[in-house]
Design goal:
Layout: H1 6-9, H2 30-49, E1 53-54, E2 57-58, E3 60-63, E4 68-71, E5 74-76, H3 81-102, H4 105-110, H5 112-128, H6 131-139, H7 144-169, H8 175-183, H9 189-209, H10 211-217, H11 219-223, E6 234-237, H12 239-242, H13 267-270, H14 291-303, E7 310-313, H15 315-320, H16 324-331, H17 334-355, E8 360-366, E9 373-374, E10 380-390, E11 396-403, E12 409-410, E13 416-418, E14 422-432, E15 440-450, E16 457-466
Antiparallel strand pairs: 1-2, 3-4, 4-5, 6-7, 8-10, 9-10, 10-14, 11-13, 11-15, 12-14, 15-16
C-alpha cells in the first residue's frame, strides 16, 4: 500500500465565516478532566509563584533595575544569558518532540491562549448559562436584564485580566511593592503600561479572539503539519466505522439499516472550541483538546456502541487497524528518538552546568594609565582592578594569590568582602624584582578564593609587563 502524500494529510481549505461566533457546549470526561488539571496547575504556578518568599525576597524575580534574575537559590546575571538561549532551544526541542509524538498537545492543554479561553468561557457559562441560553441571550434585543448580565460577565473578565497583568509585572517588580504602589497611586509609567497592556491582551485574546487566535494568528498552527507524519497521534474520526451517518432508534442494529456507528448528532461539533467538524478529517483548526472524544464516547455509551469512534490514533493505525501496543511501538521511531536524545542531552548538560555553577565571577582590568612603573625599592609594579561578582546570597570574603613568575608577589596582602548578590571592586598591585624576568609581557594567573569555602575559587589570566 502506498503511503499517502503530505498533501492528503493537510486540510482542504474551505471558506469560513470569521464573524460566526462559536458557542462551545459544556462536556465532561476523561480528557476534559485532564485539561482542567493543567489549567489549575499552570495558574497556581503563574499566580502563586510570585508570592512565594525565598531568602528574604521573592522566590522568582527578574529584577531588571539591578540586572539580576532570581530563581529560588539561583542568581543569574547578564553574563548568564546563555542559559536563556538554552531554555529557548529546549522549548523548541520539546515542541518538536511532543508534536511529532502526539500532535498539538501544547495547544490543547497548556497553551496560555487555550487556558485563559477555557477560564473565560467558564465565567461566561457561570454568568450567562449553557450554550442554548447564551445563543438566545445574544440574539435577544438589548434590555436592562441583558445589559446587567453582560456587564457582570465583562466585569469579571476585566478583573481577572487586570490581576493577570498585575501578576505578570509582579515577576519584574516585586509584587508586594507593586501593590503598595497601586495603593498609593505611585506606580511608574512603564509598570502601568505593562499591567494595562498585558491585561488588555488577556481580555481581548481570551474574551473575544478565542478560536480566531488559534485559527488565523498563531504561527504554530500554520506550520504544525511539517512536524506531523503518519505515526503522529491526532484526534481521528474512524470514517470506516462511522459512515454512513444517520439517526436511528436506540437498540437498532446500524448494520441492518445500512448505517455506521455515527448517529449524526453533531455533539462533537457543538463541544469544539474552534467550531470544526472533526469528521471532515485532520484540520488546521483542531487544537487537540479532545473534547469531541469525550462527547462522542458519551453518545456511544448511551447507544451501547463501543467507544472510540473518535479517538487519539494515527493515520497508519487507522489504515492498518493497528493495536494500541503497535501504536506505542511505532511512536519510538528514529525521528522521535533523535529529538528525545538531543533534548535529554541538552537538559542534562544544562542541569549539570547550573548545579556546578561557581557563585563567583572575576574580571581583571589592567591600569591603562601606566603599563608598569618602578617602585621605591627598585622593583617593577603592575596595577590591576579586580571586579568580583558575588553570585550567591551570602556575604563572602575573598583572598587573592598570584602565580606565573618566580618572585611575583602582592604589594599588599588584603581580603575583599563583597555583599550578597553584589559586585565589588578592589585595586591590585603586583611586584616583581627588576632582574627577575626579561623585558616584555609575561603570562600570569590571578586566583581569587573564598576564605570560608576554598571550593569557591576562580583563576583568571593576565600579563605582567617588564620595561
Amino acid at each position: 500500500m502506498s503511503k499517502p502524500s503530505l498533501h492528503k494529510r493537510v486540510i482542504e481549505i474551505k471558506p469560513i465565516d470569521v464573524d460566526a461566533k462559536v458557542y462551545p457546549r459544556s462536556i465532561t470526561g476523561y480528557f476534559q478532566h485532564w485539561r482542567w488539571v493543567f489549567v489549575w496547575l499552570t495558574q497556581l504556578v503563574f499566580y502563586g509563584l510570585c508570592w512565594l518568599p525565598w531568602n528574604g525576597r521573592q522566590a522568582v524575580l527578574f529584577d531588571l533595575d539591578t540586572r539580576r534574575f532570581y530563581l529560588f537559590d539561583l542568581v543569574l546575571w547578564p553574563q548568564d544569558t546563555i542559559y536563556l538561549a538554552i531554555i529557548l532551544a529546549l522549548s523548541a526541542l520539546a515542541l518538536f518532540l511532543f508534536t511529532a509524538v502526539a500532535g498539538r498537545l501544547w495547544c490543547g492543554y497548556t497553551c496560555p491562549q487555550t487556558v485563559y479561553t477555557e477560564i473565560f468561557l467558564w465565567i461566561e457559562k457561570l454568568v450567562e448559562g449553557e450554550r442554548p441560553k447564551r445563543i438566545k441571550l445574544d440574539a435577544a434585543p438589548w434590555s436592562a436584564h441583558k445589559l446587567a448580565i453582560k456587564s457582570a460577565k465583562h466585569g469579571l473578565w476585566l478583573a481577572l485580566a487586570f490581576w493577570t497583568g498585575l501578576t505578570f509585572v509582579g515577576y519584574f517588580t516585586p509584587i508586594r511593592d507593586l501593590l503598595q504602589e497601586i495603593a498609593t497611586l505611585s506606580m511608574g509609567p512603564w509598570e502601568m503600561f505593562w499591567v494595562t497592556f498585558y491585561g488588555a491582551a488577556t481580555y481581548g485574546n481570551a474574551g473575544f479572539l478565542r478560536e480566531h487566535m488559534c485559527k488565523y494568528i498563531c504561527p504554530y498552527a500554520q506550520f504544525q503539519f511539517v512536524m506531523f507524519d503518519q505515526d503522529t497521534l491526532n484526534i481521528t474520526y474512524d470514517k470506516e466505522r462511522g459512515d454512513p451517518r444517520g439517526t436511528r432508534q436506540k437498540g437498532v442494529d446500524p448494520r441492518a439499516e445500512g448505517l455506521g456507528d455515527c448517529i449524526d448528532c453533531s455533539i462533537c461539533v457543538q463541544v469544539c472550541p474552534t467550531g470544526i467538524d472533526i469528521r471532515d478529517g485532520l484540520q488546521l483548526e483542531c487544537i487537540g483538546c479532545a473534547a469531541c472524544i469525550d462527547a462522542c464516547d458519551q453518545v456511544m455509551d448511551k447507544m451501547n456502541y463501543p467507544r472510540g469512534l473518535i479517538r487519539y490514533s494515527t493515520e497508519n493505525a487507522v489504515t492498518m487497524k493497528a493495536s494500541r501496543s503497535e501504536i506505542i511501538r511505532r511512536a519510538f521511531r528514529p525521528r522521535v528518538l533523535l529529538y528525545l536524545a538531543v533534548f535529554l542531552s541538552v537538559s542534562i548538560a544544562t542541569a549539570w552546568s547550573l548545579a556546578t555553577k561557581m557563585p563567583l565571577k572575576v574580571s581583571v582590568i589592567r591600569d591603562r594609565a601606566a603599563m608598569s612603573r618602578e617602585a621605591a625599592d627598585g622593583s617593577i609594579e603592575n596595577s590591576f582592578t579586580l571586579q568580583l561578582t558575588n553570585a550567591s546570597e551570602q556575604t563572602r570574603t575573598y583572598s587573592v594569590r598570584v602565580t606565573g613568575l618566580p618572585g611575583l608577589r602582592l604589594a599588599e596582602e588584603h581580603e575583599i568582602t563583597v555583599p550578597p548578590a553584589a559586585i565589588g571592586d578592589a585595586s591590585l598591585v603586583l611586584q616583581l624584582d627588576a632582574d627577575a624576568a626579561k623585558p616584555g609581557a609575561h603570562p600570569i594567573a590571578i586566583t581569587v578564593v573564598d576564605v570560608a569555602d576554598p571550593q569557591v575559587s576562580v583563576t583568571e589570566t593576565a600579563k605582567f609587563w617588564m620595561p
